């Protein structure tokens, strides 16, 4: 443990780590671990999509011409294909274009302008609006709230989902209209919400009658092990608890097929689905139905979808192992950082000793490694502990991930040593 070293041993240990850091920096590497993008090899898995639906293959199962206008809700065969994954009836699913983030954004804007089923007035007419934000969380969720002046309230994660005692206390405030949730392999902590957590979210009493769970199930099929973890169906849980309209479920194929040309989904109750389609029909005459057709032709059925995701796992799992193995080799037993070996998702979340995450990012940049900024996983970009870091190993090659992980671990260890030295100096002053 670094904290247990004598002054002399700490000085010697720090010198060794500094030498390792200088040697790594001298390699002149330029590596980017900032965003969880699919690697080119992953995109190649869906290369067959580009030749589909094929010449003259533009008719749906119902005989409609997919080249033409219409079908705002999305093709029935697409909704049926993803019904099991989304946990909703095909009739209560809406298919969008490539970004589920766009559907989340639109849902919030429409709620602000029009309200949602159960609203007494548009949300923008309320004196204040707040969202609960489990932390660490997804920076793009937070950016939407910040863009529209929605106050964000951090809620800690427990290892089984958000702290429900805290959540149940906070939703007594009528200003709290919603809550962001990434319930399976959370971004970035790889959290898996427990059945108890989901039931409590579904059943809790909220002061706002139009409270919504923004249920971003982005990693529903993104397993990193042979264990395919399942979570409770939130739509069913809400219905059973007497709150059938509570959950807005979002997902996409962005990290399944082609990130720039995938499909996004909104799934919910019948009332919410009708609400979404009514709003969307003012925005568009119809989505890209040819892209929807090519996904059906390519994936075929749910078994085909799962088999396709197994190919992703084969590419991703070694990269994630490279990260955690490097962290363990350098940081294990040092008391400098804590991390969870993810069983799914796209990130490795690391909690440093308080006050050192920003220093790690700076050291990494000076050594040619780009990391997501410290604070990105907190609302307003401000981690009060300056502790959490999100590592994204999906895009670089395996060789680059191994090199970057070694450098990141060295930076983390050096930052921890510097922090301990600064702490002792301050205590002695």
Q: What's the count of strands?
A: 12
Which percent band covers the strand fraction? 5-15%
- Which structural class do you get from the secondary structure elements? alpha/beta
Largest beta-sheet details: 7 strands, mixed
Count of alpha/pi helices: 14
**Shape verdict:** globular
Widest sheet: strand ordering: 2-8-7-6-5-3-4
Task: Give helix and strand order, one letter per element, not per position.
Answer: HEHHHEHEHEHEHEHEEHHHEEHEEH
Mean pLDDT comes to 97
Radius of gyration from the alpha-carbon trace, in angstroms: 23 Å
The rounded distance between the terminal residues' Cα atoms is 24 Å
Give unreliable regions as ranges: none
> Helix share of residues?
40-55%
What does this protein look like?
The protein has 429 residues and is α/β, with parallel strands linked by helices. Helices cover 41% and strands 13% of the residues. The protein is built from 14 helices and twelve strands. It has helices at residues 7-25, 40-44, 76-81, 83-86, 100-114, 139-147, 164-170, 195-203, 234-240, 270-283, 289-299, 302-331, 357-366, 398-428; strands at residues 31-33, 93-96, 130-135, 151-156, 176-181, 212-216, 247-252, 264-267, 337-339, 348-352, 369-371, 388-391. The strands form three sheets. A seven-stranded mixed sheet has the order 2-8-7-6-5-3-4, with helices on both faces. Strands 9-10-12 form a three-stranded antiparallel sheet. The longest helix has 31 residues, at 398-428. It is globular. The mean pLDDT is 97.
């Amino acid at each position: 443990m670094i904290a247990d070293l004598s002054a002399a041993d700490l000085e010697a240990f720090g010198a060794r780590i500094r030498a390792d850091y200088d040697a790594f920096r001298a390699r002149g590497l330029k590596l980017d671990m900032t965003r969880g993008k699919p690697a080119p090899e992953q995109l190649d898995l869906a290369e067959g999509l580009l030749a589909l639906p094929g010449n003259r293959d533009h008719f749906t199962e119902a005989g409609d011409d997919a080249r033409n206008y219409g079908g705002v809700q999305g093709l029935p065969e697409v909704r049926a294909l993803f019904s099991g994954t989304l946990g909703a009836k095909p009739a209560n699913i809406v298919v969008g274009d490539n970004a589920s983030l766009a559907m989340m954004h639109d849902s919030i804007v429409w709620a602000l302008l029009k309200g949602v089923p159960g609203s007494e007035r548009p949300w923008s007419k309320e004196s204040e609006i707040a969202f609960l934000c489990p932390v660490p969380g997804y920076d793009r969720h937070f950016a939407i709230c910040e863009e529209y002046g929605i106050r964000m309230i951090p809620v800690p994660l427990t290892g089984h989902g958000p702290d429900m005692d805290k959540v149940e206390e906070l939703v007594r405030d009528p200003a709290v209209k919603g809550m962001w949730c990434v319930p399976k392999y959370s971004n970035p902590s790889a959290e898996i919400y427990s059945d108890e957590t989901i039931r409590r979210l579904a059943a809790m009493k909220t002061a706002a009658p139009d409270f919504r769970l923004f249920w971003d199930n982005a990693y529903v099929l993104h397993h990193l092990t042979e264990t395919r973890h399942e979570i409770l169906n939130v739509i069913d849980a809400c219905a059973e608890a007497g709150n059938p309209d509570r959950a807005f479920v979002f997902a996409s194929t962005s990290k399944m097929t082609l990130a720039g040309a995938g499909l996004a989904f909104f799934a919910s109750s019948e009332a919410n689905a009708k609400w979404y389609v009514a709003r969307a029909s003012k925005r568009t005459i119809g989505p890209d139905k040819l892209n929807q057709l090519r996904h059906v032709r390519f994936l075929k059925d749910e078994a085909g979808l799962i088999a396709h995701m197994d190919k992703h796992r084969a590419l991703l799992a070694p990269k994630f192992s490279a990260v955690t193995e490097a962290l363990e080799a350098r940081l294990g037993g040092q008391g400098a950082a804590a991390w969870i070996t993810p069983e799914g998702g796209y990130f490795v979340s690391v909690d440093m000793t308080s006050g050192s995450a920003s220093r790690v990012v700076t050291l990494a940049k000076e050594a040619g490694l780009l990391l997501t900024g410290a604070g990105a996983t907190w609302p307003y970009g401000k981690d009060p502990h300056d502790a959490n870091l999100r590592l994204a190993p999906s895009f670089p090659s395996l060789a680059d991930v191994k090199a970057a992980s070694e450098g990141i671990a060295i930076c983390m260890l050096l930052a921890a040593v510097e922090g301990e030295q600064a702490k002792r100096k301050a205590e002695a002053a």
